[in-house]
Amino acid sequence: MGVSDEKSAFQKAAEQAKAVIPTHGGLTVNLKCGILSEVYLEEGILDLIDAVDLADKEADRTARLLAYLIFHEWMHNKLDALEGASVDIHNSGGGGLAEIELKNVQKTSPDDILTKVNIKLMSAALGKSRPQCTARLT
Ligand SMILES: [Zn+2]
């Protein structure tokens, strides 16, 4: 499978994912070349800032949203992208940043966004190697 085939496989997965959940904000796919994660700051996604934000500065809010989206895809990358993974972050990732949509996050405190379960799962996975697809990095 060449780079263009991998690109098409990722684009197909992205289109399918966006059709189901347009405001997921990213995608992680396990391709033949390895795991590939992307996040999207596009129309509809930026509206999530109000849904998830606890900060009060506009610049901080966009950066925070981007960090949340990256952390979410990073959770997929480390915890459930490989076949046979024991965790499905949307269902058993501890809520917060593992929620399928950031607008579902309860935000009464910062602990509701980055939850104790999110931290526990990710701290256990940080040292685990995952094959990464770098074919689209140019
Ligand atoms: Zn997700």
Task: Chart the SSEs and their pairings.
Elements: H1 3-20, E1 26-31, E2 34-39, H2 48-52, H3 58-80, H4 89-92, H5 110-113, H6 116-125
Antiparallel strand pairs: 1-2
Please give a structural write-up:
By secondary structure, the chain is mainly alpha-helical. It has one domain. The chain is built from 6 helices and 2 strands. Strands 1-2 form a two-stranded antiparallel ribbon. A hairpin with a 2-residue loop joins β1 (26-31) and β2 (34-39). The longest helix has 23 residues, at 58-80. The chain starts with a helix and ends in a 13-residue tail after the last helix. The model has no long low-confidence stretch (mean pLDDT 84). It binds zinc ion. The site of zinc ion has 5 residues, from α3. Zinc ion is lined by residues 24, 72, 76, 90, 100.
What about the largest sheet? 2 strands, antiparallel
Overall mean confidence score, pLDDT = 84
What is the overall silhouette? globular
Bin the helical content: 40-55%
How many strands appear in the DSSP assignment? 2
- Write the H/E string, N to C: HEEHHHHH
Proportion of residues in extended strands: 5-15%
Instruction: From the alpha carbons, calculate the radius of gyration and give it in angstroms.
Output: 15 Å
Q: How far from one another are the termini?
A: 18 Å
The structural domain count equals 1
Our count of helices gives: 6
Structural category: mainly alpha
Q: Order of strands across the widest beta sheet?
A: 1-2
Low-confidence stretches: none
Bound molecules: zinc ion
